[in-house]
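check this one:
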Amino acid sequence: MSTEPDWLAWAREIQAIAQTGLTFAGDPFDRERYEALRTIAARMMAAGSGQPVARIEALFADQEGYATPKVEVRAAVFDDAGRILMVREVLDNGRWTLPGGWADVNLTPAENAVKEVREESGYIVTARRLAAVWDRDRQGHEHKAFSCAKFFFLCDLAGGEAATGIETSEIAWFGPGEIPADLSLGRVLPAQIRRMFDHYRDPGLPADFE
């Protein structure tokens, strides 16, 4: 069940209608109406979030095409001792997270997960299977302007060695009882990490969808 506030859900829905409408509308009067809807959505989000209206209007104006959720990938990499790979995220004051990030174009979600592990940790992995596809807001993450689908992949270690990247400051392996308290909660939650251990221990578990 979603825990997002009503104002956020309504603002997102209006913004999505406006964005998609502006993509396909040819009549100038229709475009004017969709632009008005986009402005209303921005004002609603500004009122609820405390952010400046102009900033949100600019953010919405940058969105083009049919409105869909953003795609984020996370990799759950385990070593032979059953420990999970984690990295410190520079952009979040060095808090720990699973390797991952926004999905790049021209790569599948699984290929993106493999790429993120290599860039953020130095390790080479192969994606074994999809463990979960979670809606960010239904998991308890901080609410954001746009919807996001989070893809979690179980990955096997294939080579490489620990090496930080431009986005990471430290790399380490953790057992199920050793997960650090200072997590980057915008990226990964304790329950999600615990669920990755469940999938590692029981390969027969079906992928989670919520």
Remarks:
- The mean pLDDT is 93.
- The helical segments are 6-24, 28-49, 53-61, 109-121, 136-139, 190-201.
